[in-house]
Amino acid sequence: MKSRSISLFATIGVACFAGIASAKTYNANITEAEVLAAQKAWGAALVKISDDFASGGLPKAKATANAVLDAAYGYNLGPVLFKPTLTVAPQTFRTTKAGALAYFVGDDKNFPSDTGFALKGWKKVDIENAAIHINGDVAKTMGKVMITDKNGKVTTVDKTWAFKKDDMGAVRIVLHHSSLPFTAN
Amino acid sequence: MKSRSISLFATIGVACFAGIASAKTYNANITEAEVLAAQKAWGAALVKISDDFASGGLPKAKATANAVLDAAYGYNLGPVLFKPTLTVAPQTFRTTKAGALAYFVGDDKNFPSDTGFALKGWKKVDIENAAIHINGDVAKTMGKVMITDKNGKVTTVDKTWAFKKDDMGAVRIVLHHSSLPFTAN
Amino acid sequence: MKSRSISLFATIGVACFAGIASAKTYNANITEAEVLAAQKAWGAALVKISDDFASGGLPKAKATANAVLDAAYGYNLGPVLFKPTLTVAPQTFRTTKAGALAYFVGDDKNFPSDTGFALKGWKKVDIENAAIHINGDVAKTMGKVMITDKNGKVTTVDKTWAFKKDDMGAVRIVLHHSSLPFTAN
Amino acid sequence: MKSRSISLFATIGVACFAGIASAKTYNANITEAEVLAAQKAWGAALVKISDDFASGGLPKAKATANAVLDAAYGYNLGPVLFKPTLTVAPQTFRTTKAGALAYFVGDDKNFPSDTGFALKGWKKVDIENAAIHINGDVAKTMGKVMITDKNGKVTTVDKTWAFKKDDMGAVRIVLHHSSLPFTAN
Q1: Which residues in chain D have Cβ-Cβ distances shorter than 8 Å to B163?
Q2: Fewer Cβ atoms within 10 Å of its own Cβ: the N or the C terminal residue of chain A?
Q3: What gap in Å lies between CA C43 and CA B48, rounded to an integer?
């Protein structure tokens, strides 16, 4: 994580003993404020990858995406329950970091369907939570996420996240289910 | 929960001090076996509602669905993070029991788009987990669920569940995100 | 819990969906404020039992102690890890409610060594925490507890507690280790 | 943790992704078997420090004790709730590693009352749990611990432990309250 772009993701992935509120109290629990900050940081990271792709091409975008996955996802803790918006069988679920990286920036022959979701000129991310659950060091959220591209087109997805605060105080995405809204016809 | 059909759902919702493994050990954690049993019970309940609709009409199906929601979902614990497969804005998320019941059996003027997902002649449910997370009394699963109707037609969905084992030892669904697979069209 | 004295213990044992911070957020975690309130309520309950013994004799004290145990301890959840200050082998540990009640008010032939710790004219309880741990719905504390009797005599004990917030939002003592300070003599 | 003696403590402190039961399941919970193993390892470590003191003097004993604290206690996670058997005010509680090390091997001018509890020729440790609680990645135990010295003299203490399984799968003591049995005298 030597990339300078990592500073962007400090809200999610900073490694410090955030669990220690004072010399006397150790609190491992995740807070609602930490959850909301992590959601915003995810949106900022998506926009950052798009911006870096525009300014520095695939190498820059890939380096940023790699740093985001290291800092903000829980692949270091075990398999991540990740169902991206646009993936299809037999590679629907991306439980490994390689699968997630391919989804965000493409360029991986092992995931031939992936064209790089994060490269599509995203400019803004808005989040509307339907509800939030907080249990110990894990929080789960569900709601609508609206992402706007450089042409002003808005894509809305139904999104579920689970965030886990690790021993170092880093808040990591351990579950991420994203889907396009149902359309009748 | 006076319905006799409740016996079907014992695997999920039975109320006993399941947390006490022996006179000396109290273990509140959920196990992988309990998670798999709860998934199977969900499938059996869906088929049961369809069967009851066929044999007893809407009143019977509704009574069963109501018992399932009481026994197997966590609406008694707080808002449930439920994104059913076929719901649309502005009623995409069903954080209350009334909204879930309407989705499964319809017949609720407050949810006019709902036609009763559980009434559609389902006969079989198969589950393929991509991965499972277990943290304390909460488990999260993600994978494919294949549901077969009376004509042999199979519908596949991408499904994320979180199950929480409550103080009485009942395993309850507290999060449920279901979506049709992405199609490029 | 029909005793009117139960109102005293509301801080510890009130049954409501305290876990729901808003219509949108369900938070099962215990907070430091809840822990400190539960500690104070324990002290108030000890004084209350002593006062009730003075004013109403053993029946009144026993009714109050019984209500305290129902409301503020976790015997309904499983065995409680309770090592009272003055118990001796082979009845050192009081994992059942009967054993705890005998310790506090005596009068139980099954616990012949117990003379009723809570009947000894306690008037004031002060707590100095050395440190506190918060993990999900369980908090652990360790520190000095100073209890003053009606003659102004202060007894200091080293005390460890664990409190668990149950599904109803009640904060219950599930572990309690109390010991007199070591003296070299 | 360069000491070769660290191999002794592998049962408690080995760093591996023990949380991952398979490629598909991530389970962060602590098990009863892990708790019992950690208790036994604590006893073995106490005997090891005594043995090392006998064979290699204070330097060897101190190196071993230091390795034990690094591997088997949770001082890296925050303040540990540690009330050793023989400590007195104002240094009753040893929430820092320095305080714990002084208790076990003495030789610290900042803790002048400490003579080195682990240096007293301990040969055997037996544990009788009164009850065990398991909640997520934390387990709590309470019971009698009998430690036998080289002359066959047995010292019995009332002991409460809490063990936490960290992100690396290491089981660490985060709470430890030890006290001599009450004597009426």
Answers
A1: none
A2: C
A3: 53
Smallest Cβ–Cβ distance between C26 and the set B20, B26, B77 belongs to B77
Between CA C31 and CA C34 the distance in angstroms is: 5
Token pair for B31: 């196990």
Assess whether pLDDT exceeds 60 at residue C1.
Answer: no
Say whether D136 and B131 touch across the interface (CB within 8 A).
no
Please state, in angstroms and rounded to a whole number, the distance separating the CA atoms of residues C173 and A134: 22
Check residue C162 and give its pLDDT.
Answer: 98
> Looking at the predicted structure, is the pLDDT value of residue D8 above 70?
no
How many whole angstroms separate alpha carbon B65 and alpha carbon B50? 10
**Element holding C94 (H helix, E strand):** none
The tokens describing B21, both together, are: 């493994």
Name the stretches of chain A with pLDDT < 50.
1-22
Q: Which positions in chain B touch C19 (Cβ < 8 Å)? A: 77-78
- Enumerate residues 6+ apart whose C-beta is below 8 A from A38: A11, A12, A72, A163, A171, A173
Q: How far is B161 from chain D (nearest CA, A)?
A: 14
Say if the Cβ atoms of A85 and B182 lie within 8 Å.
Answer: yes
Burial of C117-128, coded b for 16+ CB within 10 Å and e otherwise, reads bbbbebeebebe
Which residues from chain C sit within 8 angstroms of residue B78, using beta carbons? 17, 19-20, 26
For residue A88, the surrounding DSSP H or E stretch is none
DSSP string of B2-53?
Answer: --GGGGGGHHHH--S-TTB-SSSEEE----HHHHHHHHHHHHHHHHHHHHHH
Rounded to the nearest 10°, the torsion over CA D59, D65, D70, D73 is -160
φ/ψ of residue A5, rounded to 5: -65, -10
Query: Beta-carbon neighbour count of residue C103 at 10 Å?
Result: 24
Among partner residues C24, C79, C167, which is closest to B167 by beta-carbon distance?
C167
In whole angstroms, give the CA distance from residue D162 to residue D144. 15
Residue B55, both tokens: 């044999």
State how far the Cα of C160 lies from the Cα of C163, in Å rounded to an integer: 10
Contact assignment for C79 to B26 by CB distance below 8 Å: yes
Round to whole Å and give the CA distance between B131 and B141. Answer: 6
Cβ proximity of A32 and C27 under 8 Å? yes
Contact assignment for B179 to A174 by CB distance below 8 Å: no
Predicted structure pTM score: 0.88
C-alpha–C-alpha distance, residues C65 and C105, integer Å: 7
Angle, helices B97-105/B32-72, rounded to nearest 10 degrees: 90
